[in-house]
Amino acid sequence: MNISEMNWPQVEEYLKTDDRAVVPLGCTEQHAYLSLSVDSILAERVAQEAAAPLGVPVFPVLGYGITPYFLSYPGTVSLKAETYLRIITDVLDSLRRTGFRRILFVNGHGGNAPGQTAAIEWMDQNADCRVRFHNWWNAPLTLEKVKAIDPVASHASWMENFPWTRLPGIEQPAHQKPMVDLERMRTFGPEGVRDILGDGNFGGRYQRSDEDMNAIWSVAIAETRALLEVW
Ligand SMILES: [Zn+2]
Predict the structure, then answer these.
(1) How far is the CA of 9 from the centre of ligand 1 (A)?
(2) CA-based nearest residue to 141, from 51, 227, 207
(3) What share of the chain is helix, strand, coil (3-state, %, to 5)?
(4) What are the residue ranges of helices labelled H in 16-78?
């Protein structure tokens, strides 16, 4: 159930018998020819589909993340790590205050990893709560499915190209891009990263069949839902 489709008395009623909540974490950053909001779209959709049959409220996706390396690409917005940790902590404080005790972050962006550290630190002060930080795209079963379909998969490649992240009228290149040297790229600032990366895909094909993507999606939904069922 999306929190945008609930009023506060309904949340109060829910909290009489349950204390679970889901918060999707996204990002606004270059994804080559795909939407700048790929990570937000995917995290929110995985969260919503996973939680729907369980009736657990899903909060709006946090649409900004930590992504300083892509700042030379127009449209990218990066929060400072310090800002991000404060947001994560503020969200947790608010949810706990009204009665939530089990909170699942469904994260769609690798750069948001410091948020997990913030959650662990927060639990030290809030021992009555449990927080799980779930990177849905590299969770074991989902990543295994990705690798089985095509081992050359990366940021802004086919593995992020779903019917709901591609843009109408935008053609995807047909070739398989060689994997970029990630270790070397990480030694450069935003200008150097753009020089090395070009269109923004880290490596791999740009698109695969909807059948392949739906197969990955089903695994991701089931894997995420299982986390909500067993705490
Ligand atoms: Zn992404």
Answers:
(1) 36
(2) 227
(3) 50, 15, 40
(4) 38-51
Q: What is the pLDDT of residues 67-112, one digit of tens each?
A: 999 999 999 999 999 999 999 999 999 999 999 999 999 999 999 9
pLDDT at 214: 98
Q: How far is CA 195 from the centre of its chain?
A: 26
CA–CA separation, 11 vs 46, rounded Å?
A: 21
> 3-229 has which fold?
Rossmann fold (3.40.50)
Structural tokens at position 68: 């300083």
d(CA 213, CA 207): 9
Please report, for the chain, the start and end positions of each structural domain, with discontinuous segments joined by +.
Answer: 3-229
The CA 226 to ligand 1 mean position distance, Å, reads: 23
In what order do the strands lie in the sheet containing 130-135?
A: 20-25, 102-107, 130-135
DSSP state of 2: B
Confidence check: pLDDT of 231 > 90: no
Tell me how far the alpha carbon of residue 127 lies from the centroid of ligand 1, in angstroms.
32
